[in-house]
């Protein structure tokens, strides 16, 4: 038992959220560098290397040179066991990216200092808010010309609606970047040499009012720093760990992932300020991670990783206890006892077979088609279910039908199964049958996945007509008669697989217009599995 407590206490499971190109991959690489998991930065699936990576996963993945799945990186650092959940962000952005956040205990938000808060960051941030998880901000690329740091703070506060607390503060940016002032330690860490980011750069700590610092940064930056510090101490919010742990305040750090500057400080503060896995909500109350009995929930299903076997992998987040290979478990939703065979942990480019794993860890297990997203796995004799995972609003829609009308059955079977795995969402227009199906996806690549899989696995060729609609909302007010909603000209009434009513819009403003026109109407961006 002592071992269980120790193992779980040292776990930190988090996701990195950012807009493409902000530096997520680079930052991940640098974390690994500190963890000793790699010797030289540059070995994590970069965009370039991914093109050449040999993958036995889906054909489409090979064709595109990208990874369709998200995976987890685990490494040890300074006595901690760190799990970084990969949240795909480029073309492979999908609903899985959102679902992965449901498995994380905290998030690191990477912002490009010259771009500020970008679209994808906003979307991912909203999902983090659903669970009030701690969010740590890393403002990256300070070695390039950056926006004013005060303006960046204002932007985070106004656009994302979260209070900020700068933990360190930059001195200059771009060619003028000289380092950061650590507000707690009250010293300046200087930014000196480039080493192409391959190794940790040399830096030294100087007193904030020392002549050495003045000599190094020059009169102007020195004075700006003194003024900034005064302003920050007077005007910025006090650091409040309570608020941080509930996602109400974000500690902000400045640095440069590429040149390795500010990473170690960030990682150390982050590990100190975040907690080990916390209790998770279930239908019988909260379940402690330290409960000796194993439990987990499925947050992602990856289909057809090996085409020859048509197998699926169910990704589970362990919420309590210890998992041991070959143990008997109980699948709540399937009401069945089973053995989880072949548990795997998916690293960036390899899979390794696991013997044991603990609360906080992610495992991928072979799934013969029995699991659904949100399912709970526990030990025999324990029958509770973890709180479900929401379905997230798709942003791209297409009308889909089969080319050969004789293949109607396979078509319905195919789209229904693929929807059950969570790769796509399917809708029907109100008051019509399944003649024409509306498919909604979070990332457009899923349209290609759907087409590819229907052809390859179900032998059905489809026709897809993209729709101009981008905004979908679940109707959540119980007394609303959907047929009588006073709509806008771009509004469509649809229903999901379970018959839940939704509204589809071309324009975002139309959502508010419809809310204004219909008293008592409630709409949500999130549905339930
Ligand atoms: P992502 O995973 O968030 O999409 O971003 P990624 O780390 O791939 O970084 C995007 C680009 O930004 C890369 O350059 C990377 O080298 C650069 N970058 C990341 N952090 C910093 C930083 O702190 N300073 C500077 N100056 N650049 C940074 P690229 O040329 O697009 O890609 P690559 O050819 O280097 O792979």
TrEMBL record:
Keyword Membrane: no
Superkingdom of source: Bacteria
Residues annotated as domain Tr-type G: 9-278
GO BP annotations, alphabetical order: regulation of translational termination
GO MF annotation terms: GTP binding; GTPase activity; translation release factor activity, codon nonspecific; translation release factor activity, codon specific
Keyword Nucleotidyltransferase: no
Entry-linked Gene3D superfamilies: P-loop containing nucleotide triphosphate hydrolases (3.40.50.300), Peptide chain release factor 3, domain III (3.30.70.3280), Translation factors (2.40.30.10)
Subcellular location: Cytoplasm
Pfam families, per the entry: EF-G_D2, GTP_EFTU, RF3_C
Signal peptide location: none
Protein residues bound to GTP: 18-25, 86-90, 140-143
Listed GO CC annotations: cytosol
Keywords: Cytoplasm, GTP-binding, Nucleotide-binding, Protein biosynthesis
Family of this protein: Belongs to the TRAFAC class translation factor GTPase superfamily. Classic translation factor GTPase family. PrfC subfamily.
PANTHER family hit by this protein: PEPTIDE CHAIN RELEASE FACTOR RF3
Entry-linked NCBIfam families: prfC, PRK00741.1, small_GTP
Purpose of the protein: Increases the formation of ribosomal termination complexes and stimulates activities of RF-1 and RF-2. It binds guanine nucleotides and has strong preference for UGA stop codons. It may interact directly with the ribosome. The stimulation of RF-1 and RF-2 is significantly reduced by GTP and GDP, but not by GMP.
Name under which the protein is recorded: Peptide chain release factor 3
Organism: Frisingicoccus caecimuris
Taxonomic lineage of the native organism: Bacteria, Bacillati, Bacillota, Clostridia, Lachnospirales
């Amino acid at each position: 038992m002592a071992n269980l407590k120790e193992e779980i206490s040292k776990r930190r499971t988090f996701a990195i959220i950012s807009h493409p190109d902000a530096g997520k991959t680079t930052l991940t690489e640098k974390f690994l560098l500190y963890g000793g998991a790699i010797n030289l930065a540059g070995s994590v699936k970069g965009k370039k290397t991914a093109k050449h990576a040999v993958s036995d996963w889906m054909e489409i993945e090979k064709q595109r040179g990208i990874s369709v799945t998200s995976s987890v990186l685990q490494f040890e650092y300074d006595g901690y066991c760190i799990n970084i959940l990969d949240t795909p962000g480029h073309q492979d952005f999908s609903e899985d990216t959102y679902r992965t956040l449901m498995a994380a205990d905290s998030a690191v938000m990477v912002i490009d200092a010259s771009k500020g808060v970008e679209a994808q960051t906003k979307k991912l941030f909203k999902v983090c808010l659903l669970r009030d998880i701690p969010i740590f901000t890393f403002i990256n690329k300070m070695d390039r010309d950056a926006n004013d740091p005060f303006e960046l703070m204002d932007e985070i506060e106004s656009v994302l609606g979260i209070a900020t607390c700068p933990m360190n503060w930059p001195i200059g940016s771009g060619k003028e970047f000289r380092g950061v002032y650590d507000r707690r330690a009250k010293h300046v860490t200087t930014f000196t040499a480039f080493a192409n980011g391959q190794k940790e750069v040399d830096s030294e700590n100087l007193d904030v009012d020392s002549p050495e610092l003045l000599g190094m940064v020059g009169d102007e930056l020195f004075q700006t720093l003194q003024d900034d510090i005064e302003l920050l101490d007077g005007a910025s919010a006090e650091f409040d760990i309570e608020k941080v742990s509930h996602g109400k305040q974000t500690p902000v750090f400045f640095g440069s992932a590429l040149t390795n500057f500010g990473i170690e400080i960030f990682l150390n503060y982050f590990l100190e300020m975040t907690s080990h896995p916390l209790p998770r909500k279930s239908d019988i109350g909260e379940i402690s991670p330290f409960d000796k009995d194993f439990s987990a929930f499925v947050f992602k299903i990856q289909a057809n990783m090996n085409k020859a076997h048509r197998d699926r992998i169910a990704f589970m987040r362990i919420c309590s206890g210890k998992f041991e290979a070959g143990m008997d478990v109980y699948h709540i939703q399937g009401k069945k006892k089973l053995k989880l065979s072949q548990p795997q942990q998916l690293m960036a480019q390899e899979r390794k077979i696991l013997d044991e794993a603990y609360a906080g860890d992610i495992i991928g297990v072979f799934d013969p088609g029995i699991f659904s997203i949100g399912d709970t796995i526990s030990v025999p004799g324990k029958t509770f279910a973890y709180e479900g995972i929401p379905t997230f609003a798709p942003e791209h829609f297409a009308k889909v039908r089969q080319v050969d009308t004789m293949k109607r059955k396979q078509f319905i079977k195919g789209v229904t199964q693929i929807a059950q795995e969570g790769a796509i969402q399917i809708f029907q227009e109100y008051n019509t049958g399944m003649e024409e199906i509306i498919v909604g996806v979070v990332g457009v690549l899923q349209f290609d996945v759907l087409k590819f899989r229907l052809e390859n696995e179900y032998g059905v060729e489809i026709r897809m007509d993209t729709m101009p609609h981008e905004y979908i909302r679940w109707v959540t007010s119980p007394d609303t008669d959907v047929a009588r909603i006073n709509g806008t000209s771009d509004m469509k009434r649809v229903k999901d697989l379970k018959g839940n009513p939704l509204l589809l819009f071309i324009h975002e403003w139309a959502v508010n217009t419809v809310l204004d026109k219909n008293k008592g109407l409630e709409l949500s961006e999130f549905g339930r599995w």
